[in-house]
Amino acid sequence: MARENSLDAQELFEALTMIAVQQSICADACSVGTCHPKCSLEVVDELLSTPGAVKGEEVDLLLDFRSLLRARQDAEATLRVFCDLRRRLEQHHYLAFYRLRRWLENQIVAEARSLESGEIALVPLRLNFYCVEAVRRQCLCAALQQIVRLSMPRLRFSFVLPLQARPLHPARLLPVGREP
Amino acid sequence: MSTTTSVQTAKTVRKDNRLVDALNLVLADSYALMALTHLAHWNVEGTGFFALHKAFEEQYENLFEAVDEIAERVRALDAYAIGGLAKLAKTSGLEEFSSPMPQKDYVAGLIVAHEKMVDDATRTRDLAGEANDLETQDLMIGRLQWHEKTLWMLKSYLKH
């Protein structure tokens, strides 16, 4: 989890100052094409800067979550903290968590690998559940639709490449059963 | 302002492709948002059904009238309105709903779409101001007022 020295206090201050004058967060509609990498940080910063929005342990969890989002290294831990936060805060901050869900669905992908055949299927994330294990199960079911012989499957979550570095036609990342 | 100057201004406006493109984007956004709102109207379920079903109906009806006004303004600028479902969806970039989904997700999804509309309509209003096209500016101000009011209503629904 986040250590105190992993947080850039100056950057946090600048982000909070910027948010104070922003009319709306994530004004572009949430889609793979328009998703901007810092959207989730803006949402978290707004939660942190709104008086009374979060308190106590939830602040610590949000800071951990922010640190994970900034690092973009451990997608599974990011999802785990997100699910924890969602269970605690979504009822009072539905729109913020909707934005975070859409962002995570655009920025994280599940990779299912068959240990036997070595085949790999990239499955889009659908955050319809409140715990990582349920999300994992859903991703595995989606992967089974792509690879018929997916024996002994292993699944790992990872961040997709930043927008600038993405391939032009990320066809394999298209949601299962959804039109391109 | 003399008649000659008025004619010159109108010609300048007509030649401003940026303004026509911006108006066509607002047209595409409005059409896509109308389709999303209609879908929400049909498929919303749960305790707030009657209120949301009725509110979504009023919203897509407003958008239906708006697309006609916006498209006719494009024509008045001596340009052509874009059309066709695929073209409008691609131009707007608004993501489709994966219906069915929870009641609050329809509201949150529409909020995100209205926010994009506000962003695009604001840009169009400002371009119209730069081009001294007060009619387009007035049209965009009217649209912005309605979208901002709708945003307030939708956000109020999500407040706990």
Q: How large, in whole angstroms, is the Cα Rg of chain A?
A: 17 Å
> How many separate domains make up the residues of chain B?
1
**Architecture (CATH level 2) name of chain B:** Up-down Bundle
Terminal CA distance of chain B: 54 Å
CATH superfamily of chain B: Ferritin, core subunit, four-helix bundle
The strand count of chain A comes to 3
Report strand % of chain B: under 5%
CATH class of chain B: Mainly Alpha
Strand order of the largest sheet of chain A: 2-1-3
Which class of secondary structure composition applies to the elements of chain B?
mainly alpha
List the helices and strands and how they pair.
The complex is a heterodimer of chains A (180) and B (160).
Chain A: H1 9-21, H2 39-49, H3 57-71, H4 75-89, H5 94-107, E1 108-114, E2 120-124, H6 132-146, E3 153-159
Antiparallel strand pairs in A: 1-2, 1-3
Helix pairs in contact in A: 1-2, 2-3, 2-5, 3-4
Chain B: H1 3-15, H2 17-43, H3 49-76, H4 85-92, H5 103-130, H6 134-158
Explain what you see:
The complex is a heterodimer of chains A (180) and B (160). Chain A is mainly alpha-helical. Chain A has helices at residues 9-21, 39-49, 57-71, 75-89, 94-107, 132-146; strands spanning 108-114, 120-124, 153-159. Chain A is built from six helices and three strands. In chain A, strands 2-1-3 form a three-stranded antiparallel β-sheet. In chain A, strand 1 (108-114) and strand 2 form a beta hairpin. Chain A is elongated. Chain B is mainly α. Chain B has a single domain (3-158), classed as Ferritin (Up-down Bundle), CATH 1.20.1260.10. In chain B, 81% of the residues lie in helices and 0% in strands. Chain B is built from six helices and no strands. Chain B has helices at residues 3-15, 17-43, 49-76, 85-92, 103-130, 134-158. In chain B, helix 5 packs antiparallel against helix 6. Chain B is elongated, with a radius of gyration of 17 Å. The termini of chain B are far apart. The mean pLDDT of chain B is 92. Chain A binds chain B through residues 24, 26-31, 33-34, 91-92, 94-95, 98-99, 102, 126, 178, and chain B through 93-95, 98, 104-105, 108-109, 111-113, 115-116, 118-119, 155, 158, 160.
